[in-house]
């Protein structure tokens, strides 16, 4: 195991948060006594550190599916006037497919709605270990189908969909944009925003060894997520879980992508590698790399200024592309 990264190497706007985490014992998600406790801790952390909750004209929860396949989506609509050509933003929350919810990322979705004045649909997909892969991915596809089926009534254009997510949600935002089994007839993804996404559950880059302690998300956190979400080891190579393995040289270009990578994140190197892969295949890519920041900017954007700034950049990208 490599040495603990000195706190002075952390960006000034995140340094206090990481120092407080270490002073409290440095326990990460996988160190909780149970998945339920890890979820509760994450909810509390997001509530304490997230953005203030912007006022949005319409917020509505809608249940989809039946029985054991039931899940909830949340619709945010801040439009003063509705236009049938308005794009739709579909948001996938992070948390390794095991923790997180529409509540942990509610401030982020509110801000997206107020920054863009476009409808935002957040997916509160089913989580592992209760609902293992591919439950979350199927819920996300079902949500896009619901967007298509309700486009006329809601006054939006399902041919102009922007996908966005952080961490595991960033991986979902990517595969919903290009993976054939997840594409929905009658919809077109015109932009994808991948915020420090999880893209490869099979291979570990050197960043896993480098970010092994001292941060809320470490290599062991990612391993724990996989153990609690994947139904079998073979799932690690499924293109829906590891798009890094699915994308080959010479593949068709994907929808325009905004990718944020972080230097103090075990996912940082795979995000840089994936941005390069997409660009070499002709995808329009806007890559922002923050070398001194760690995972979790957006759920702590109330305390970490860069999270708010990057959310504004993401909103701008959606408006330019969607």
Give short descriptive properties of this protein.
37% helix; 11 helices; alpha/beta; 322 residues; 8 strands; globular; single chain
Descriptive notes:
This protein is an alpha/beta fold. Helices cover 37% and strands 17% of the residues. It has helices spanning 12-23, 35-49, 106-116, 135-149, 151-154, 168-178, 206-210, 219-229, 243-246, 268-280, 305-321; strands spanning 58-64, 71-77, 88-92, 120-124, 161-166, 189-195, 257-264, 285-294. Helix 3 (106-116) crosses helix 11 (305-321). The radius of gyration is 18 Å and the shape is globular. 51% of the residues are buried. The mean pLDDT is 97.
Shape: globular
Radius of gyration: 18 Å
Helix content: 25-40%
Q: How many helices does DSSP assign? A: 11
Residue-averaged pLDDT? 97
- Major beta sheet, strand line-up: 1-2-4-3-5-6-7-8
Give the DSSP E fraction (strand runs of 2 or more residues): 15-25%
Q: What is the number of strand segments?
A: 8
The structural class is alpha/beta
Q: What are the segments in which pLDDT stays under 50 over at least 5 consecutive residues?
A: none
In short:
This protein has eleven helices and eight strands. By secondary structure, the chain is of the alpha/beta class.
């Amino acid at each position: 195991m490599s040495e603990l990264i000195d706190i002075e190497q952390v960006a000034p706007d995140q340094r206090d948060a990481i120092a407080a985490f270490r002073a409290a014992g440095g326990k990460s998600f996988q160190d909780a006594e149970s998945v339920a406790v890890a979820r509760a801790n994450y909810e509390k952390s997001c509530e304490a550190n997230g953005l203030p909750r912007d006022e949005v004209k319409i917020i509505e929860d809608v249940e989809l599916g039946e029985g054991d396949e039931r899940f909830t989506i949340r619709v945010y609509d801040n439009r003063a006037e509705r236009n049938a050509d308005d794009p739709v933003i579909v948001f996938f929350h992070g948390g390794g497919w095991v923790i997180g919810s529409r509540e942990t990322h509610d401030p982020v979705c509110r801000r997206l709605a107020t920054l863009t004045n476009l409808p935002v649909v957040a997916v509160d997909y089913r989580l592992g270990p209760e609902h293992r892969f591919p439950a979350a991915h199927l819920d996300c596809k079902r949500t896009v189908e619901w967007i298509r089926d309700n486009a006329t009534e809601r006054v939006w254009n399902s041919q102009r969909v922007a996908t966005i997510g952080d961490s595991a949600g960033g991986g979902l935002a990517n595969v919903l944009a290009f993976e054939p089994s997840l594409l929905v007839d009658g919809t077109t993804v015109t932009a994808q925003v991948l915020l420090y996404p999880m893209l490869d559950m099979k291979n570990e880059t050197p960043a896993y060894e480098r970010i092994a302690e001292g941060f809320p998300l470490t290599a062991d956190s990612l391993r724990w997520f996989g153990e609690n979400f994947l139904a079998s080891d073979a799932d690690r190579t499924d293109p829906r879980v590891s798009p890094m393995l699915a994308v080959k040289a010479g593949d068709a270009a994907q929808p325009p992508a905004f990718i944020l990578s972080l230097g103090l994140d075990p996912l940082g190197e795979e995000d840089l590698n994936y941005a390069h892969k997409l660009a070499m295949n002709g995808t329009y890519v806007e890559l922002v790399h923050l070398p001194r920041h760690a995972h979790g900017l957006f759920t702590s954007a109330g305390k970490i200024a860069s999270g708010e700034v990057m959310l504004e950049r993401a909103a701008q990208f959606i408006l330019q592309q969607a």
